[in-house]
Design brief:
By secondary structure, the chain is an alpha/beta fold. The protein has 10 helices and 14 strands. Helix 1 packs across helix 8, helix 5 packs antiparallel against helix 9 and helix 7 packs across helix 9. The chain is globular and about 65 Å long. The two termini are 29 Å apart.
Length: 323
């Protein structure tokens, strides 16, 4: 269990496909509170969870740097694993996690709920239908205000626990959406800055992404802005789409005078990704973001971090070749 565990448990309770059987975290008070809230048994140890034959799967919200240890133990115990993004902090750990689950024959799914949002699904359908023509450019921003709202001792805000800071923590979501909409990313140029927040980690980051189809995207992420805000604009030769947190989705075809709003009903993305995992566990399909896809997603961010540190363009293939 971790901070995100209640969010996932709430989503599981909104579904009919789960029974929350047990929970474990090192804090006895926290696991008792969670057990009371969700009607499950508090376990005295992680081994107790893994040895419980009534448990089919583990939802893992531990810190990034222990994803390998905790996921490998679950796989070896025959438990399927839903793991929150990123898959790990290093490519070596990501590969080891993927291999452990493959070897054990268990499902591994990663939490990338942003790509499931209804407005992005709508844009993807138009792209697939050829409405956009050739994709040429995209711009994205994912920003939140964390001033006075975070604990410096939390692994989420340290360079050791979350290398790359804001870009690995939240920027990874929109890096994923850009890859989902614009196609695979070939190379990255990045810049990182620490401008407002204390600690040792970047609170502002910018990436230029080179897609394999020749298109270019820009991605900005910030923990230092005045408010929460999201932007995702997709530009094609024949059409463009503009999404923002407050204005929703708009669409413009070549020759149109102005962009028209596109009604998209909000969907329960976290419940949907968990139900996709449940279906895969039951042999119905496979997770959209599995170990291999999530390792590539991590490589894009690691390329951006390396680019910022070394002042050069970094190809994703270079990161994927790391051992």
């Amino acid at each position: 269990m971790g901070w995100w565990s209640d969010v996932l448990a709430d989503a599981m309770k909104r579904s009919t496909r789960f029974e929350i059987v047990s929970c474990y975290t090192r804090s006895e008070d926290k696991r008792r509170a969670f057990a009371n809230k969700y009607g499950c048994r508090p376990a005295a140890s992680y081994d107790e969870v893994l040895n419980d034959r009534s448990i089919a799967a583990v939802v893992n919200t531990t810190p990034n740097n222990v994803h390998l240890e905790t996921t490998r133990a679950a796989a070896q115990a025959g438990k399927h694993v839903f793991l929150d993004k990123p898959i790990a902090n290093t490519i070596a750990d990501a590969r080891a996690i993927t291999e452990a689950c493959r070897k054990a024959g268990v499902v591994l799914a990663l939490g990338y709920q942003r790509r499931k949002e209804s407005h992005f699904r709508w844009v993807r359908r138009q792209i697939d239908d050829g409405v956009f023509g050739r994709l040429v450019n995209a711009e994205a921003n994912i920003s939140r205000d964390r001033l006075g709202k975070f604990d410096l001792s939390s692994w989420r805000y340290t360079s050791e626990g979350m290398p790359g800071g804001v870009m690995l923590q939240i920027g990874i979501h929109y890096a994923d959406v850009l890859e989902y909409l614009m196609g695979p990313i070939r190379a990255v140029s990045g810049r990182l800055a620490q401008l407002v927040l204390p600690g040792d980690n970047p609170d502002v980051a910018s990436l230029v992404l080179e897609h394999e189809n020749g298109a270019l995207s820009t991605l900005n992420a910030s923990y230092a802005s005045a408010s929460e805000y999201y932007v995702m604009n997709i530009y094609g030769k024949e059409a463009s789409a503009y999404y923002s947190l407050h204005e929703g989705l708009r669409f413009l075809k070549r020759g149109a005078g102005k962009a028209a709003p596109v009604p998209c009903e909000a969907n329960d993305t976290i419940r949907e990704e968990l139900e996709e995992f449940a279906d895969a566990v039951r042999g119905k399909g496979r997770p959209e973001m599995d170990g291999e896809a999530s390792t590539r997603s991590l490589a894009v961010l690691r390329a951006g971090i390396k680019s910022a540190r070394e002042g050069r363009r970094v190809e994703v293939a270079e990161i994927l070749s790391e051992r």
